[in-house]
Amino acid sequence: MLEISDLTKTYATGDTALSDVTLAVPQGQIMGLIGPSGAGKSTLIRCINRLVEPTSGRIRLGDVDLAIIGHRELRRQRRRIGMIFQEYSLVERLTVMENVLSGRLGYVPFWRSFTRRFPPEDIQRAYQLLDRVGLIEQADKRADALSGGQRQRVGIARALAQQPELLLVDEPTASLDPRTSRQIMRLITEICTEQHLPAIINIHDVPLAQQFMQRIVGLHGGRVVFDDVPAKLNESTLTTIYGEEDWNPNREEDAPAGAGSAQAADASIEAAAR
Fold it and tell me: 29 in the Ramachandran plot: left (φ > 0), alpha (ψ -120 to 50) or beta?
């Protein structure tokens, strides 16, 4: 279980990215982080694994306070936290298999990582993960030859190769088309459910968050302003999170020119089909 208490991050400029954030993520829960740009979503995720150093507060993963441990212990504790990045963060010149195996670097001696000689059990698990994410046939292909969706799948497999206790996901669909975005979100949530793996997913697409998340936390100005199930998101709560806006998706004045006739044509086609 992850427990965050009074987490604050203030930069040297005096800007406060997070202010007294307190929340807990129980085992197996998939939590979505939403909010406007600059709300603190990425900062929160990166404070958890100390890619960004928190100013104050507690970050407990099990019985370890990640906020106060030294760098040597932090390297060991990071094995427990899988990270999936928006920009994939793959080594482009390496193969898909080599990128997945890089998730085991924290577990093998330096000479093995330097020579890329991993234990047979690690290689077997990497093949199993590639099969699970649908890339088994791409194992020997270079990462720079993959599509965006395929690269994100490699990133998922690499994070899972750590056998983490917590998964952090930073805008996994920001560079993907709508269909691929849903496929990636479905894959992440299915795997988390299968492995009873807790996850925090920073996501900018609210309908996607509503579709796939079990719980949604909304940040605004570095503070938690919403924490509930997706069904509780409405115009009022979205305004609290993002600011004043008309959240009705059916406003005629917002529709592109010609949309009305296109909708009428669609309705005629559907009627004919019936």
Answer: beta
Instruction: Count how many domains the chain has.
Output: 1
Provide the residue range defining the domain that includes 228: 2-273
Phi and psi torsions of 43, nearest 5°:
-65, -40
Radius of gyration of the chain (CA): 21
Give the pLDDT confidence of 143-180 residue by residue, as tens digits.
Answer: 889 898 898 899 999 999 989 999 999 988 888 889 98
Give pTM, 2 decimals. 0.83
CATH number of the domain encompassing residue 9: 3.40.50.300
Calculate the alpha carbon distances from 37 to 43, 113, 173, 248 in Å: 11, 38, 15, 21
